[in-house]
Amino acid sequence: MFPSLTRPPVKVVVPQTAAVPLCANCASLVTGPFCAQCGQRNIRRLVSVRRMMWDVLDDQLSVNSALPRTISGLLLRPGFLTREYVAGRIVRYIAPFRLYLVTSLLFFLVLALYADPRRLGQDAERGMSPAGDSTAASRTVVKQGRFLDIGPMRDTANVPRVLRPLARRLGEQEKRINSMPRAEAIKALVSGIERNAPKTVFLLLPLVAIFLKLLYYRRNRLYVEHFVFALHIHSFAYVVFTALLLTSGGPYSVLLLLWLVGYVFWAMKRVYGQGFRKTGTKYLILGGAYLFALTIGMMLTVLVTTLTV
């Protein structure tokens, strides 16, 4: 017999490939740290508590990279974060709105510790009793005279008709608050102001952006750019005022206030790119308008607190 002229079959060996990771949430192919379909992070979820807390901080504040860059840019480089945001370099820093929320939360937490309504009420009780003796009788004593005085609003006949319902409500609140012990009235009013003040300042943000839009209307800037600038300026102001509370009016208070004043001016100059004279003029106009709006806002805050306490 002749040998077979056909070649023996060749055994093909297929190389083993690495397993392609799939998203545990939507089963899509994952080629990076996040799923391109649903956005879930591509990490093992059953981790230690320490790792879990670190992931939370990284998700909220980007502590691994964005937080140091954001802090240095906010504190040491006026206007830098706004310019980076406008230029499209966003991910490498903490988002402006999140930065504002974190700094405002920090400030009002520290303020609540330094202006604790219960502690202020206890101080009022000790001040009302002879030699600081806080007895049961002294705790029920009401301050002589009026603790709350609404003045001409008390007589509804002397106010415009449209304001009479408000005047009657204020009169009722005046009687109720004046009938309370001083300590209880102080605690109620301070707690209400601390609760309403963050909302007032937050509502000023779009107003500041409107002021900036009017001052720089020839620069053809979008409103959102002015709003981002207002967020960054307020974030820095919250950091400065938090430091003022922590230093308790020490020798660094003047330096901190001067730092804030100079910071806002230099931030306006860098972001909007105008000379010292124009920037100084608009800086004074913006500052005056903001102080006026803030004063009105705080008066409304006190009014709302009085009506709702």
Automatic annotation (TrEMBL):
<feature type="transmembrane region" description="Helical">
    <location>
        <begin position="197"/>
        <end position="215"/>
    </location>
</feature>
<dbReference type="Pfam" id="PF12412">
    <property type="entry name" value="DUF3667"/>
</dbReference>
<keyword id="KW-0472">Membrane</keyword>
<keyword id="KW-1133">Transmembrane helix</keyword>
<feature type="transmembrane region" description="Helical">
    <location>
        <begin position="97"/>
        <end position="115"/>
    </location>
</feature>
<protein>
    <recommendedName>
        <fullName>DUF3667 domain-containing protein</fullName>
    </recommendedName>
</protein>
<feature type="transmembrane region" description="Helical">
    <location>
        <begin position="284"/>
        <end position="307"/>
    </location>
</feature>
<feature type="transmembrane region" description="Helical">
    <location>
        <begin position="227"/>
        <end position="246"/>
    </location>
</feature>
<dbReference type="InterPro" id="IPR022134">
    <property type="entry name" value="DUF3667"/>
</dbReference>
<feature type="transmembrane region" description="Helical">
    <location>
        <begin position="252"/>
        <end position="272"/>
    </location>
</feature>
<keyword id="KW-0812">Transmembrane</keyword>
